[in-house]
């Protein structure tokens, strides 16, 4: 993962068709689109990926949450593994060409994920967010601790707005992941452009 990354993760609350339409509109500004649709069956998830591809999103920009089988079947860029998923080392051993992300919540977990062969980790939540009510955020200092003490590229998530993007990147994150900040915005295209502008890099 080279320059600063912008990842968009589906909320699970919107119809997949709407997610696909928004993805089509903003794809020039987003590096990766994550399908995080826990309620969908493997067949439905495959159909959702097909819909993304039909809307112009290349498989190389698609990451599937949890379902390694679907990610492999559609030749997606990779899979994002959670605590209930297959172990990172199992997936990397069986699918060495597939990028594997791991959800990590501490320096210890980040180091373990790197040792097991993960290609990147999603760490958070960094700031207060309505999706994690009552749960204290990790904050920038803990993010700095993780990024400074592991070789695992970290994608930060949670309460990240265009205005605080640069603080997150300065704390060592390789990129950010956004959900409602773009998908539930009044103008998703404008919001995606704002994130990209603050992150810098291409299309800024």
TrEMBL record:
One of its GO terms (cellular component) is cytoplasm. GO terms for molecular function: thiamine-phosphate diphosphorylase activity. One of its GO terms (biological process) is thiamine biosynthetic process. It comes from the Bacteria. InterPro entries: Aldolase_TIM, ThiamineP_synth_sf, ThiamineP_synth_TenI. Residues 20-182 form the Thiamine phosphate synthase/TenI domain. Keywords: Thiamine biosynthesis. Pathway: Cofactor biosynthesis; thiamine diphosphate biosynthesis. NCBIfam families: PRK07695.1. This is Transcriptional regulator. It comes from Mesobacillus campisalis.
């Amino acid at each position: 993962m080279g320059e600063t990354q912008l990842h968009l993760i589906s909320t699970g609350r919107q119809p997949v068709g709407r997610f696909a339409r928004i993805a089509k509109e903003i794809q020039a500004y987003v590096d990766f689109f994550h399908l995080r649709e826990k309620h969908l069956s493997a067949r439905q998830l495959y159909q959702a990926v097909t819909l993304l591809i039909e809307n112009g999103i290349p498989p190389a920009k698609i990451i599937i949450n949890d379902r390694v089988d679907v990610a492999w079947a559609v030749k997606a860029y990779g899979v994002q593994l959670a605590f209930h998923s297959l172990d990172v080392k199992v997936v990397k051993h069986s699918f060495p060409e597939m990028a594997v992300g791991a959800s990590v919540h501490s320096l210890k977990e980040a180091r373990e994920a790197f040792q097991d062969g993960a290609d990147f980790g999603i760490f958070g939540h960094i700031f207060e967010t309505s999706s994690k009510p009552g749960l204290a955020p990790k904050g920038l200092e803990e993010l700095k601790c993780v990024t400074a003490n592991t070789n695992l590229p970290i994608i930060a998530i949670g309460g990240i707005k265009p205005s605080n993007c640069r603080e997150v990147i300065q704390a060592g994150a390789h990129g950010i992941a956004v959900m409602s900040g773009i998908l539930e915005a009044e103008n998703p295209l404008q919001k995606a452009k704002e994130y990209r502008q603050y992150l810098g890099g291409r299309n800024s």
